[in-house]
Design the sequence.
């Protein structure tokens, strides 16, 4: 298998009628860590993994992160390494905690901020002044942005392929809700004992665990790309 087979499989995946095709991706160490234990970001990927991640960004119509990742990493959410195409940056942010100086607001495609039904007027105004598009959506019983409603909205706005880049809270929510069509992890052959890639996915010890089926892997230099479809 190669990364070309991965992109070919994505290109051949049917797009669901009521939501985008969802591709979850993260970079982890062998022990499943995605950051330092307290959440401080650190570079996990090698250059080949970085290139792959940017290729995947350029393939997708939208790239989504949670406000947690924005507050810790301050990502630009651009596709680099010579990408011809920029995905729409999307942020899940129930309470509009996105700082008006966040780097993603410099993106040439201003971000869409998926938020609660009654956005805080002053924060919303400050973000609009920086170009952000505020998208009010219903909340779940847990008081977070309703993913199903968010995904429906994105599909109606032309987002057919969605890369979900994390962090762990957002990845867990997508997997729990069954909205994951593809999972692509880059694995660094290092051990960290850091922040886990996911929170618990099933309610009890006896529940069956999601598995990647089918699953494939390929070398990315010294890293490994593992990809497949998560199924219950
Ligand atoms: N290695 C990697 O590939 C990678 C990639 C990205 C991030 N990271 C790491 O991940 C860490 C941040 O992860 P995190 O888990 O704290 O934050 P996160 O997953 O980026 O964001 C979680 C936040 O998103 C908001 N949210 C809104 N609606 C949601 C919904 N339906 N489901 C889930 N979340 C929703 C919630 O905050 P509100 O309730 O306030 O809206 C929630 O706390 C950092 O340490 C970062 O370095 C690693």
Sequence:
């Amino acid at each position: 298998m190669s990364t070309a087979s991965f992109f070919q499989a994505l290109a051949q995946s049917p797009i669901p009628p009521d939501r985008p095709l969802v591709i979850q991706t993260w970079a982890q160490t062998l022990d499943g860590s995605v950051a330092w234990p307290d959440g401080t970001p650190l570079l996990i990927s090698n250059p080949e993994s970085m290139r792959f991640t940017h290729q995947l960004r350029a393939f997708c119509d939208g790239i989504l992160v949670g406000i947690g990742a924005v507050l810790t990493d301050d990502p630009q959410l651009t596709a680099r390494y010579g990408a011809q195409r920029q995905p729409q940056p999307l942020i899940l942010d129930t309470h509009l905690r996105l700082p008006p100086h966040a780097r993603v607001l410099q993106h040439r495609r201003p971000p869409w901020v998926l938020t609660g039904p009654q956005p805080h007027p002053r924060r919303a105004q400050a973000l609009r002044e920086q170009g952000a598009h505020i998208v009010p959506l219903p909340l779940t019983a847990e008081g977070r942005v309703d993913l199903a409603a968010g995904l429906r909205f994105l599909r109606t706005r032309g987002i057919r392929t969605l890369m979900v880049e994390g962090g762990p809270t957002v990845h867990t929510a997508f997997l729990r809700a069954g909205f994951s069509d593809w999972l692509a992890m880059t694995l660094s052959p290092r051990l960290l004992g850091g922040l886990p890639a996911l929170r618990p996915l099933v309610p009890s010890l006896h529940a069956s665990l999601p598995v990647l089926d089918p699953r494939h892997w390929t070398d990315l230099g010294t890293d490994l790309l593992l990809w497949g479809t998560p199924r219950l």
